[in-house]
User: Which sequence fits this backbone?
């Protein structure tokens, strides 16, 4: 009932934007803990307000909030979202404060406006619209899982799913975001890279020393530079022995899907002001590169970082790293190999603290949910639907897809970089919020019917 | 007149300590500018209070304060000191606030207590003591040069000296500190290493990006790690072509002076909790290593440094470096060679900003001032006097010794590491303050007599 859905959303958009701003005004930085529990409470209240029965689960890190509503059919569609956000730093680069949401130029600016509070609210708008269009009853059940640790790698979510397989029984899932790319072309990712995030630390002195002693006293900064330099060669090849052992060659089917995807180059050049890409990649090679696992330095901390100079030998150094892993790499295996590598290179004094891991995951491109999302997407956006074999980021798709035996697709506000996801001035275009709600509502509307022919077969 | 001098200092010590605390309570961080001008005014007032005529010179960075008093003889002894201090960070490691001086356990704790406000005040105590012992008249002239940019490399002092050769005409100089080593053995350095301090900066993106793009977007953090790794091999050999061209081989005379010096190893192991030294140096090799120029990383700044992790590719990275240079290396030559090296290694995008340079310097071990300092030092400390051919740190000795044609010696509170110079909990032992004043007063007392036989020759 697309017409009734669209009418409802058109008439009520403002209400949902106001509610999104209220949610974004509540800080919920999982990296520091700021405001996280208050935000979980607020999410529970919002779910209740929209007619869902809620439960809040403790013991998996920050609370997991679950909301459910029954539908006419037994079929259930799961929505995965999260209420936590990335740290807002560097604060000086925001044009308006990160937790004082502001609408200007057709966009809502706030930390979390896109990732993932705006996405979450667009889904609740879709649920309300479908319910209204069906005379107050949903055609299928809906199940919201809203967690509070996604930005620190969802360390508890896999166990949460394993512990609640009955509660979470469903027939398909829509992941936290996505649904259109940076040129508003609809599509879905069929896979996510895994991640292993670690912090390396080394200490060479009991305290910083005067650099007039640099000929004799060992420097933690130099030690860290050398340990890092041992991890990767200048051609981006990761030098940890066995790192690539579980990497699958890219299949012909995936290469074909990649070929149909648009050229990223002009967009990336403009967005990030880059002169050249990693390894001077161009054109199709840029798209293929998502099948390369990576070793990224998130940040390095050592020595004096203020203005001017300070003649010290740093006693301590640390570096935060993330490895993005491709099918079938295993983050626990890579962690072990990293330790073996550092030891073999003589860096037994470099401590590794694991901070985050997720496995890579893939979904079946032939599932009927994918077709439904494609049809709805083409209707809303008026463009062909894309199938993306693997995206560069990581998410706990693996924790749901495997144990629940369901396909997981994207449908939401789309490509995060234009929204400055994880960066200052994060925002969501009001038009994108509206379209995401229309797209999701159409999927909800048709979801139960995907199985309507089953009884006769 | 050592007895009268010692009596005066014994009776008046408390007054000078109180005045030192007042001076230390005034912040004067040249790296940030905090309190520097206020401190210059305070130093001028203090010099006047102790009977010196003052002048304050602008146009050489922070003000240079000069104080002079005539003596019975035309001979003049110059004291070089500085009123600026190192940044007090990390603040959390101080047991009492850096600019709230506190005496406990026989020590005065404050940023600058040792380097260089305590040293400066001990000299004023010596001047007063000698004047009192000689019935109100100094036996030789004294000339204080107290600058405010030493901790940022004294960028203006060489030009200041060149511009005021007449004003600064003198017959010898006592440098800012030193005079005893970490086991209270008296001695003087006969040379200082030079320094070249630079900041390297690189930018690869217009803003930080999500690390899910690490397979395509270039990382400033990795770029900096690779640029740094190109500077030095694992055996501490600096890889900049031509870096060692002007390094003199260690002379037999210097080797002999080095052989007479005490073993640093136990002291360094205890003070810095080190397990092993650079290049596994031991014993005599540790002493010889001061003749090796160094490339030190003062600090690296890139990416996310807060708690937890943040999945970003850093857009920018910077590193502060200092090179300690030995005779006859030239910091301006090394700066050029660094640029050539980075370009040759493909790092044309790594910007170099020079922040500080000083030339290496040496003084003549056979000058009579050295003998006088030795005799006075043995009397005060009761131990043989050491001649140190080269010390690891840098100071603008070169700016005075050359143009003024004078020997420059150390006489003061001694080895900085035990005083936590440049580190949290900087302090000065009250006993060391007292002894430094006694030592310097004896040098002042005998200085004019060094030339008393000249008229007859």
Assistant:
């Amino acid at each position: 009932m697309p017409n009734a859905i669209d009418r409802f959303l058109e008439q009520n958009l403002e209400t949902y934007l106001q509610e999104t701003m209220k949610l974004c005004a509540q800080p919920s930085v999982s990296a520091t803990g700021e405001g996280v529990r208050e935000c979980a409470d607020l999410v529970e209240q919002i779910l209740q307000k929209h007619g869902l029965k809620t439960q809040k689960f403790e013991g998996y890190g920050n609370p997991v909030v679950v909301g459910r509503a029954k539908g006419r059919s037994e079929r259930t569609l799961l929505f995965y979202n999260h209420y936590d956000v990335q740290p807002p730093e560097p604060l000086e680069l925001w044009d308006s404060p990160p937790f004082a949401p502001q609408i200007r130029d057709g966009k809502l600016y706030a930390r979390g406006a896109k990732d993932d509070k705006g996405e979450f609210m667009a889904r609740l708008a879709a649920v309300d619209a479908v319910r209204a269009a069906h005379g107050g009853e949903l055609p299928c059940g809906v199940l919201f899982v809203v967690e509070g640790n996604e930005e620190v790698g969802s360390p508890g979510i896999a166990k949460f799913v394993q512990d609640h397989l009955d509660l979470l029984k469903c027939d398909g899932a829509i992941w936290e975001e996505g649904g259109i790319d940076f040129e508003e072309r609809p599509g879905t990712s069929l896979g996510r890279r895994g991640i292993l995030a670690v912090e390396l630390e080394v200490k060479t002195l009991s305290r910083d020393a005067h650099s007039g002693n640099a000929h004799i006293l060992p420097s933690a900064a130099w030690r860290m530079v050398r340990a890092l330099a041992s991890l990767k060669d200048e051609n981006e090849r990761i030098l940890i022995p066995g790192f690539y052992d579980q990497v699958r060659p890219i299949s012909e089917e995936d290469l074909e899907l990649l070929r149909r995807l648009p050229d990223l180059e002009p967009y990336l050049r403009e967005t990030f002001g880059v002169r050249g890409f990693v390894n001077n990649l161009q054109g199709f090679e840029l798209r293929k590169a998502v099948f390369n696992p990576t070793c990224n330095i998130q940040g390095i901390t050592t020595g004096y970082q203020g203005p001017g100079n300070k003649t010290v030998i740093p006693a301590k150094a640390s570096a935060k790293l993330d490895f993005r892993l491709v099918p079938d790499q295993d983050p626990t295996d890579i962690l072990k190999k990293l330790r073996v590598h550092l030891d073999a290179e003589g860096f037994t004094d470099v401590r590794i603290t694991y901070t985050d891991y997720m496995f890579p995951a893939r979904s079946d491109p032939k599932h009927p949910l994918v077709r439904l999302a494609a049809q709805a997407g083409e209707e809303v956006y008026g463009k062909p639907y894309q199938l993306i074999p693997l995206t560069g980021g990581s998410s706990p798709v693996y924790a749901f897809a495997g144990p629940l035996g369901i396909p997981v697709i994207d449908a939401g506000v789309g490509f995060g970089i234009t929204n400055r996801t994880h960066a200052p001035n994060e925002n969501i275009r009001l038009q994108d919020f509206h379209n995401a709600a229309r797209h999701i509502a159409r999927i909800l509307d048709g979801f139960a019917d995907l199985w309507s022919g089953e009884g006769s077969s």
Remarks:
- The longest strand of chain A covers residues 194-203.
